[in-house]
Amino acid sequence: MLMVIINGKKQHYAGLFDSYKHDIVKTWRVLKTIMRKDVVNKTLPEYFNVNGTKLTKPDDIANAFCTYYTDVGASLASKIIPPNRSFDTYLTNRSRNSMFLTPTDPMEIVDIMNKLKSKKVLDLTIFPLSAQWKKEQSLKV
């Protein structure tokens, strides 16, 4: 009996999607209906169970949430088992042909561009790079 219901729902929603395939708004309505986004529970539970204690007062519930979220990071961190090997033991077959780039800043790039010979270095628009650089800098001011 359950399979008949499941297959019936599949066929029903497949038909809806097929009929709404050119209407994105109606397609999203069907998706929200399937995901039950149309049902919103606007009532709070009568109590919260915290470590076996029923909390009903809003202040007690708020303090319990505060305590939980304050302590959850340290609690989870204390459960992490330290590895018995160093991280570099996992790095095998190191490449001798690797490269490392150090961080830079805009002033270093400006200095490098100012040292370029403008008559020999051209960008894709066939303007000298230094002229293009000065033009861009003047637009930023």
Q: Low-confidence stretches at least 5 residues in length (pLDDT < 50)?
A: none
* Biggest β-sheet: strands ordered side by side in the sheet: 1-2
Radius of gyration from the CA trace? Answer: 32 Å
Helix count, DSSP H or I runs of 4 or more residues = 5
Number of separate strands: 2
Major sheet description: 2 strands, antiparallel
- How far from one another are the termini? 74 Å
From N to C, what is the helix and strand string?
A: HHEEHHH
Strand-pairing-aware structural class: mainly alpha
Shape from CA axes? extended
Average pLDDT, to the nearest integer? 81
Helix content class: 40-55%
Beta-strand portion reads under 5%
How does this structure look, described?
- By secondary structure, the protein is mostly helical.
- Among the domains are: 2-34; 49-78, no CATH class; 114-140, no CATH class.
- It contains 5 helices and 2 strands.
- The protein has helices spanning 2-19, 24-34, 58-78, 106-115, 129-140, and strands at residues 48-50, 53-55.
- A two-stranded antiparallel sheet has the order 1-2.
- The longest helix is centred in the middle third of the chain and has 21 residues, at 58-78.
- The mean pLDDT is 81.
